[in-house]
Amino acid sequence: MSIDSLNWKILKCLQNNARQSNAEIGRQVGVSSPAVSERIKKMEDAGIIQGYHAFVSPFEAGYQLKAIITLRAFMGMLKPFLEKVKTYDEVLNCYRITGNENIVMEVVLKNQKHLESFIDQLIVYGETKTQIVLSHVIKYNEVRPIK
């Protein structure tokens, strides 16, 4: 499915506020509510829209630290890690990457002691590097048309 300019406008609306009504989106993009609904359904069916989520503030939920942790897996430990990482509640996002490290994780932690304990669990699988996140520069940026 190709994404035409009207679909991009609808996607922009949804990425800014997925809870707004189809009628409101229709007013913003200049089509009827049923037309918006049909286009959204087609984009969902095509896998362009993959879901709708609430963004929860880790800090307001009680987490004091957010960190980026990279892992350089030991020989033979990448596959076991890829299974294990799915069980960690601390991990918000995990990416398998190219380069010296194999993995980049975004994690939330209660405090420094929790960070130490979490790293202790990881070092069985490889060498880690940790960076503490101070603030977001860009947060939940929208996907835009390719130029």
TrEMBL record:
Ranges where the HTH asnC-type domain occurs: 3-64
Xref: Pfam families: AsnC_trans_reg, HTH_24
InterPro entries: ArsR-like_HTH, AsnC-type_HTH_dom, Dimeric_a/b-barrel, Tscrpt_reg_AsnC-like, Tscrpt_reg_AsnC/Lrp_C, Tscrpt_reg_HTH_AsnC-type_CS, WH-like_DNA-bd_sf, WH_DNA-bd_sf
Alphabetical list of SUPFAM superfamilies matching this protein: Dimeric alpha+beta barrel, Winged helix' DNA-binding domain
Swiss-Prot/TrEMBL keywords: DNA-binding, Transcription, Transcription regulation
Lineage of source species: Bacteria, Pseudomonadati, Bacteroidota, Flavobacteriia, Flavobacteriales
GO molecular function: sequence-specific DNA binding
Protein's name in the database: Lrp/AsnC family transcriptional regulator
Gene Ontology cellular-component terms listed: cytosol
BP term (GO), one: response to amino acid
Signal peptide: none
Source superkingdom: Bacteria
